[in-house]
Amino acid sequence: MDHIETEPIDLVRDKNFIDKYFSLTIKKELNIDIDVSNEYIAAQNIVSRKLILVKTFSEVVMGNPDLYLLLAYLIHDINTRPLTKGQIIRALEK
Questions:
Q1: Separation of alpha carbons 89 and 24, rounded Å
Q2: What is the pLDDT of residues 26-84, one digit of tens each?
Q3: What range defines the domain where residue 26 resides?
Q4: What are the Cα distances from residue 24, in Å, to 2, 6, 32, 71, 93?
Q5: DSSP label at 7?
Q6: 0.85 exceeded by the pTM?
Q7: Helices (H), the chain
Q8: Structurally, how many domains does the chain consist of?
Q9: What DSSP element (H or E) covers 43?
Q10: Is 44 exposed, middle or buried (0-12, 13-18, 19+ CB in 10 A)?
Q11: Residue 56 CB neighbours (<10 A)
């Protein structure tokens, strides 16, 4: 099995992959081109000490309910589901 297939996504080191994954999903679902790189940050959960993505939504996102809900879902999905780098790369290649 390829190392990249099972390597968990690193929220800091792989931010570029996550940005592209979010942007591609938003484009497919809502037909909106948006740079999401400043819409969230990686931070450590003070209770679990786990690294998570935290919303820092701009006015553009806050002003569009569909975009807000989709991006909030994507962030929640990354935080709660063990996603691998391989899964992200495969989604980007489709």
A1: 12
A2: 999 999 999 999 999 999 999 999 999 999 999 999 999 999 999 999 999 999 988 88
A3: 3-93
A4: 24, 22, 9, 11, 10
A5: P
A6: yes
A7: 3-6, 15-30, 59-62, 65-80, 85-93
A8: 1
A9: strand 40-44
A10: exposed
A11: 11
Both tokens assigned to 75: 């962030």
Q: Residue 58, Cα to own-chain centre: how many angstroms?
A: 16
Residues near 17 by beta carbon (within 8 Å), at least 6 away in sequence: 9, 85, 88, 89, 92
Residue 35, number of CB atoms within 10 A of its CB: 10
Residues 23, 64 contacting (CB under 8 angstroms): no
- Bridge partners, 40 (sequence order): 55
What's the pLDDT tens digit per position in 1-37? 455 567 888 999 999 999 999 999 999 999 999 999 9
Which residue bears the tokens 């994954």? 21
